[in-house]
Amino acid sequence: MANVLVTGGTGYMGRALIPELLRRGHRVRALVRPGSEGKLPAGATAVMGNALEADSVSAAIGDSDTLIHLVGVAHPSPAKARQFRDVDLASLRASVAAAADGRIRHFIYVSVAHPAPVMQEYIAARMEGEALIRQAGVDATIVRPWYVLGRGHWWPVLLLPGYWLLERLPRTRAGALRLGLVWRHQMVAALAQAADHPAHGVRVVEPAEIRRAGSG
Predict the structure, then answer these.
(1) Is the separation of the CB atoms in 71 and 51 below 8 Å?
(2) Is pLDDT at 158 greater than 90 in this prediction?
(3) What is the pTM of this model?
(4) What domains can be seen in the chain, in order of their start residue?
């Protein structure tokens, strides 16, 4: 059983992940902005704070030994390039700084599959985030989806036939698998499994492994 702090617990991924963590027997604290605690799934302990401030994240850690960082701009697009640095990267920087004092033994981060021909600013911010984690020297699991399908995130379903074809052509197979789409339940399973089995060093989970995690 892990004592888990989740940042971004009221978002698209956090609201699905927290019940699964609780189901598996983990204790869950969630850093939330004042007034947002009502959006948390039942069973999680709400801790008021600001995910962009290291001191706030540090105060929220309490007895947590695992930190799952889920803060990010909703529905990323090229038009949100500035927010990728002001929100996604700034919050990750705060979480890494808070984890660096040694209380957090396992850091779980949702990054992005790469390289890719689009969303370069988003990828750059997430890659910088990965570098911060490595520099901090904390044991970490980095989960790299490309796009997570689920409620309110359906439009890429139209691309699935194209992915099916590209995965079967030798010249495009590797790229199609690397940038393959995953479902939210698969991401939830991959993140929960990471909490179940802490990494030693830095472990990277790519889309194919994410899909396998949710196939059971």
Answers:
(1) yes
(2) no
(3) 0.90
(4) 3-213 (3.40.50.720)
